[in-house]
Amino acid sequence: MGDPVGDELVASLGSPGGNVTGNTFLGPELVAKRLQLLRDAVPGFSRLAAIWHPGAYGERTMQGFLKETEATARKLGIELQLVQALYAAEIENAFSAMIRWNADTLIVLPSPMLFAEHRRIVQLAAKNRLPAMYQAREFVDAGGLMSYGANLADLNRRAATYVDKILKGAKPADLPVEQPTKFELLVNLKTARELGLTINREFLLIADEVIE
Fold it and tell me: Could you state, in order of their start, the residue ranges of all structural domains in the chain?
């Protein structure tokens, strides 16, 4: 999850103190970086839609996502529309609301439900010609424009080592909550071409992976 301390699951990252431990993908802290990268790749946009799933994580984490998105949009001089999708069935209506508002870009805020629907979200973004920033590489592998965040598959593998330790007798209270140390930026050039975008060479040079 994003903030296990703020959502009161653990006492601290270093000393969880109870019967819960694991890893965090870092949540609200990465919003500003994602929006800045989107602005660098698509410099002309002015109307950003952000799709989010209320209740995806604890209240403090979700408020952190919204506040960071609003603050960064103000800083970049971007108009922002926050669009809720409480259930998977509401995703298409959320896109309809974005188009009515004349959004010209999209960011998908982290959510297990939205992640599970990543292929449909990518298809809807393509259908509506919305350049989009995502939090995980799976969106880009499915045809999304770009993503920035921790490698979720790597986090899952690291979680497995904690399962191994606990099954061998370690106490969760003694296992620090791990934070990711590596973040990856992926860009799908095929999608950029389909959207009529030209992403400059300097931006591509900082990408960890470019899909042709």
Answer: 44-133+153-181
**Which runs of E-coded beta strand occur in the chain?**
47-52, 79-84, 105-108, 132-134, 146-150, 183-188, 209-211
Q: Contact at 8 Å (CB) between 175 and 140? A: no
Q: What value, to the nearest 5°, has the Cα angle with vertex 110 and ends 179 and 76?
A: 95
Fold of 44-133+153-181: Rossmann fold (3.40.50)
Q: Are strands 79-84 and 47-52 parallel, antiparallel or unpaired?
A: parallel
Q: Which residues contact residue 44 at a Cβ distance below 8 angstroms, ignoring those fewer than 6 apart? A: none
End-to-end Cα distance, the chain: 31
- Measured distance CA(155)–CA(164) in Å, rounded: 15
Q: Are strands 105-108 and 132-134 parallel, antiparallel or unpaired?
A: parallel
Give CA–CA dist 70/121, Å, rounded: 22
35 touches 27 (CB < 8 A): no
Q: Which H helix or E strand runs over 51?
A: strand 47-52
Identify whether the C-beta of residue 78 lies closer than 8 Å to the C-beta of residue 46. Answer: yes
pLDDT single digits (tens) 74-124: 999 999 999 999 999 999 999 999 999 999 999 999 999 999 999 999 999
Across-strand partners of 133?
107, 146
